[in-house]
Amino acid sequence: MKIPFSMEDFLNVFGRYNTDVWPIHIVFYFLAVLSMVLVVRAYPKSNQFINAILSFFWIWMGIVYHILYFSSINPVAVFFGALFIVQGILFAYVGTYKNDIRYEFRSTIFGITGILLIAYGLVIYPILSYAFGHVYPQAPTFGLPCPTTIYTFGVLLFSRNKIPWYILVIPFLWSLIGFSASVNLSIKEDYALVVAGILATGMLLFKQRSTQGSA
User: Fold this and answer.
1) What is the pLDDT of residues 73-91, one digit of tens each?
2) What is this structure's pTM?
3) Which residue(s) pair with 159 in the sheet?
4) 156, 200 in Cβ contact below 8 A?
C-alpha cells in the first residue's frame, strides 16, 4: 500500500509534536510507572486509575497526535484519531466507570510477557529508535501510537478477569496498520508492534476461553 507522505514528512511531524508538547513526555512516563505500581500494589480504586490512565493516553493520541498533527500529512489520520478516541472512551466506560477490567501481578507467562512488552515500550523502544538514527525530537516517543500501543498490550496482560473482546479490536488493528507503515518507512523499532498485537491478543483470547472452560 502506497503511503501519501515521505519519511522526511513523517519525521518532521514527530519533530513538531515533540517540540510543541514538551515536557508532557515526563508526565507520560510518570503515569506509566504509576500504573505499574498500582498493578503490583493494590490500593482502593487502583483498577479504575489504571484504566483512566489508559483512557487518557488513547484519547490524547487520537486528538493531539492523529487529528492535530498527523492529519497534516495524512488525511486518513482523522479516522485513526476517531478510532483512538473510541478506544479511550471504552477504557473509561468499561474499565473506570464499570470497573470491569481489573489487574494484578502474577509471575505467570502472562505477567512476564506483560513486563517485557511494557519494558519494550518504555525503555527498549527509545534506545532502538536512537540506534536506528531517529534522534529526538524527530523520533517516535512514548505517548505516540506505536510504543504506547505496545505498552497497552503489556498492561492488559496483567488483567485478572475476562476482558471484553471489543477492548482488543482497535489496539490489534493498529498493530497491523502501524506495522505496515513501519515496513514502508523502515521504522524498525515498530516491527515489534505486530508481534505484541498478535501475541498479546492471542494470549488474552486464550485466557478467556480457559476461564470459560473452567467455569
Assistant:
1) 999 999 999 999 999 999 9
2) 0.94
3) 103
4) yes
